[in-house]
């Protein structure tokens, strides 16, 4: 099947106690999964700029910066009815444990402890996120194409 390339960037936010801020999505095309704030990179936008914009749009937070690239990965799925192969840049940063300023009715979020994240029982994007956060690598990791 031919897939349309799509590029995205996300940011994993860690609280001072190590909890992780994630969204829980449930849609007809992908199903239930947890993922960091972020989304598609606009034309001419850098991955870092995308993270800042998406964080502002999805949480209302404007005071966080991507500190470093954690990993990249690719995955196939259907986005708005179009089969895509998405290449994602996943950044990590630290920030205060707080609620989003924006409260969109269709966005469900939670701060998850490392133990809760590892035992979630629902898919997490990227799939190795709990392992990566348990022992953050010195250099970005390319996870490759994952199902």
TrEMBL record:
It comes from the Bacteria. Keywords: Hydrolase, Magnesium. Residues 4-134 form the Nudix hydrolase domain. The keyword Magnesium applies. Its cofactor is Mg(2+). Pfam families: NUDIX. CDD domains: NUDIX_Hydrolase (cd04685). SUPFAM superfamilies: Nudix. The keyword Transferase does not apply. InterPro entries: Nudix_hydrolase, NUDIX_hydrolase-like_dom_sf, NUDIX_hydrolase_CS, NUDIX_hydrolase_dom. Gene3D superfamilies: Nucleoside Triphosphate Pyrophosphohydrolase. Belongs to the Nudix hydrolase family. PANTHER family: GDP-MANNOSE MANNOSYL HYDROLASE. This is ADP-ribose pyrophosphatase YjhB (NUDIX family). It comes from Streptomyces avidinii. The lineage of its organism: Bacteria, Bacillati, Actinomycetota, Actinomycetes, Kitasatosporales.
């Amino acid at each position: 099947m031919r897939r349309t390339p799509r590029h995205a960037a996300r940011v994993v936010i860690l609280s001072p106690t190590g909890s992780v801020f994630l969204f829980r999505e449930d849609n007809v095309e992908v199903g239930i999964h947890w993922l960091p704030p972020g989304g598609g990179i606009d034309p001419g936008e850098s991955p870092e700029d995308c993270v800042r914009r998406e964080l502002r749009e999805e949480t209302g937070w404007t005071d966080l910066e991507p500190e470093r690239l954690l990993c990249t990965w690719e995955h196939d799925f259907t986005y708005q009815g179009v089969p895509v192969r998405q290449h994602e840049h996943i950044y990590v940063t630290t920030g205060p444990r707080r609620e989003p300023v924006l409260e969109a009715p269709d966005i469900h979020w939670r701060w998850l402890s490392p133990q809760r994240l590892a035992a979630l029982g629902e898919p997490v994007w990227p799939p190795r996120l709990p392992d990566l956060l348990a022992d953050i690598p010195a250099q970005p990791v390319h996870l490759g194409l994952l199902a």
